[in-house]
Design goal:
Elements: H1 10-28, H2 46-56, H3 63-77, H4 84-100, H5 103-128, H6 134-214, H7 218-250, H8 264-275, E1 280-286, H9 296-316, E2 320-329, E3 332-340, H10 354-365, E4 369-375, E5 378-386
Parallel strand pairs: 1-2
Antiparallel strand pairs: 2-3, 3-5, 4-5
Helix pairs in contact: 1-2, 1-4, 2-3, 2-4, 3-4, 4-5, 4-6, 5-6, 6-7, 6-9, 6-10, 8-9, 9-10
C-alpha cells in the first residue's frame, strides 16, 4: 500500500488558490513579466504557473521537493511570456523552505542563494558590460536571497522562543520538585519534633496508668495519678509550643526558642520522677567545655536524641542506673546513653520504632553518625554530631 501523502495545511491551500487566480487574471489581461515570447505561445506561461501553484500546497509538508520543482518552474517561466505570480510564488517557496525545511537546508539556503546572487551579478556585468546588468543581480537577490534570509531569521527566532519555553517549563518542573521535597522534609521534621516532644510524656502516662491498674494500692495509685497529671500538663504545654511555633513560622514571625543542652539537668530530673516507680535512676556526665556554644540545629538534635533515649529507657529499661554522657572534642559532639536492658518485669509501654528512625535522621541530616543496640545486658545509644552545622544534601 503506497504511503499516504500528508494533508496540505489550509493556509497553504488558500495561498495556492489566491496565487493561481491572480496569475490567471494577469495572464488574461495580457500582463506579462517578459518582453519577448521566445517562440512559445502565451498559454505556455500557464504551465509554470500551475506547477508553482501545486507546489504551494506542499510548502510546509515537503519544502525540499517544492523548492526543486519550483526552481525548475521558474527557469521554464523565463522561456515564456512570463507571469509575475509565478515569480512571487517562488519567493514564497524559498521562504517556506528556510522556515519549515530541515535545519541543514535552512542553514544552507541563505549561503547558497547569496553566492548565486553575487555570481549572477558579476557574470551579468561581465557579459553585458552595462550598468543595467546590476538589476539582474538585484532581482535575483529579491527572488532568492531575500526570502531565504527572512525565513532563516524567523526560524532562528522561533527556535529560540521554543528553547526559552522549554527552559521555562523545565525550571517550573524543577521548582515544583524542590517544593515537593521541601514539603516532605518539613513534614518529616514536624513528625520528629512531635514524636520527640510528646512521646516522653505519653510513655510515662502509659507506664504509670498501667501500674495504677495493676497494683491495688491507694498510695501507688495516688503517686501514679500525680505523675500522670504532671506529664499530661507538660505534654499539653509542649503541644502548645509546637502549635505556636508553626503558627509563628507561617505568619513570618520569629520562632520561639528551641531546647538546648543546657536543659539536660531538667530533662533528667523529669526522667527521675517518671522512672522512680520502675526502679530507674538517671546520671549525667557532662564533659563539655564551660561556656561552649554550638549551632542551634546541633544542640536541638542532641537534645532530642537524649530525650528519645530517656523515653526508650522509661519504656524498656530494667531497674538500675541510666547513664548519660555528653562530651565535645575535636570538633565533634558525642552523646552516649547506657541503660539496663535485661531483667525488667514491670509494665512496659508499647513502641513503634519511630523514635530510632527519628534519631538516625537527625544525625544524618547534620552529617553525623548514630547507632543503637544491645551490648550484653546494656542498651547503648551512640550519636556523634559535628560541632558545626553541616547539613548533608538529600
Amino acid at each position: 500500500m503506497p504511503p499516504k501523502l500528508p494533508r496540505p495545511h489550509r493556509d497553504d491551500v488558500l495561498i495556492a488558490l489566491v496565487s493561481v487566480l491572480a496569475g490567471l487574471l494577469l495572464w488574461s489581461l495580457g500582463v506579462h513579466s517578459n518582453n519577448s515570447r521566445h517562440g512559445f505561445p502565451e498559454w505556455a506561461a500557464l504551465v509554470p504557473l500551475l506547477a508553482m501553484g501545486s507546489m504551494e500546497l506542499l510548502r510546509r509538508t515537503n519544502p525540499g521537493v517544492t523548492l526543486t520543482v519550483g526552481t525548475a518552474a521558474l527557469v521554464a517561466d523565463q522561456f515564456t511570456v512570463g507571469n509575475l505570480a509565478t515569480v512571487l510564488m517562488y519567493t514564497d517557496l524559498m521562504y517556506a523552505a528556510a522556515l519549515y525545511g530541515p535545519p541543514a537546508l535552512a542553514r544552507r539556503l541563505p549561503v547558497s542563494t547569496g553566492l548565486v546572487t553575487v555570481a549572477l551579478t558579476i557574470g551579468s556585468v561581465a557579459w553585458l558590460r552595462t550598468p543595467q546588468a546590476l538589476l539582474i543581480g538585484v532581482v535575483a537577490g529579491i527572488v532568492s536571497f531575500g526570502p531565504a534570509m527572512t525565513g532563516a531569521t524567523l526560524r532562528n527566532h522561533r527556535d529560540a522562543a521554543n528553547a526559552a519555553r522549554l527552559r521555562a517549563e523545565q525550571t517550573a518542573l524543577l521548582a515544583e520538585m524542590d517544593r515537593s521535597q521541601a514539603v516532605a522534609a518539613e513534614r518529616a521534621r514536624m513528625a520528629r519534633e512531635l514524636h520527640d516532644m510528646v512521646a516522653n510524656h505519653l510513655s510515662a502516662i502509659a507506664i504509670h496508668s498501667t501500674a495504677a491498674l495493676s497494683i491495688d494500692s491507694p498510695a501507688t495509685s495516688r503517686e501514679a495519678l500525680g505523675v500522670i497529671r504532671e506529664n499530661s500538663v507538660q505534654g499539653l504545654s509542649e503541644m502548645r509550643r509546637l502549635i505556636g511555633l508553626l503558627r509563628d513560622a507561617g505568619a513570618g514571625k520569629e520562632a520561639v526558642a528551641v531546647p538546648t543542652l543546657d536543659g539536660l539537668e531538667a530533662l533528667l530530673a523529669q526522667a527521675r520522677t517518671n522512672g522512680a516507680a520502675s526502679g530507674l535512676d538517671f546520671v549525667l556526665h557532662d564533659a563539655r567545655p564551660a561556656g561552649q556554644s554550638l549551632p542551634a540545629p546541633v544542640e536541638l538534635a542532641a537534645y532530642r536524641i537524649v530525650q528519645e533515649s530517656l523515653t526508650n529507657a522509661l519504656k524498656h529499661a530494667a531497674p538500675g542506673t541510666v547513664t548519660l554522657r555528653v562530651a565535645s572534642a575535636d570538633g565533634l559532639l558525642s552523646v552516649a546513653v547506657d541503660s539496663p536492658y535485661e531483667g525488667r518485669h514491670g509494665p512496659r509501654a508499647p513502641g513503634s520504632g519511630a523514635g530510632l528512625i527519628g534519631m538516625r535522621e537527625r544525625a544524618d541530616l547534620l552529617g553525623g553518625t548514630f547507632t543503637a543496640g544491645p551490648a550484653g545486658s546494656v542498651w547503648q545509644v551512640r550519636a556523634t554530631l559535628p560541632a558545626e552545622e553541616r547539613v548533608v544534601p538529600a
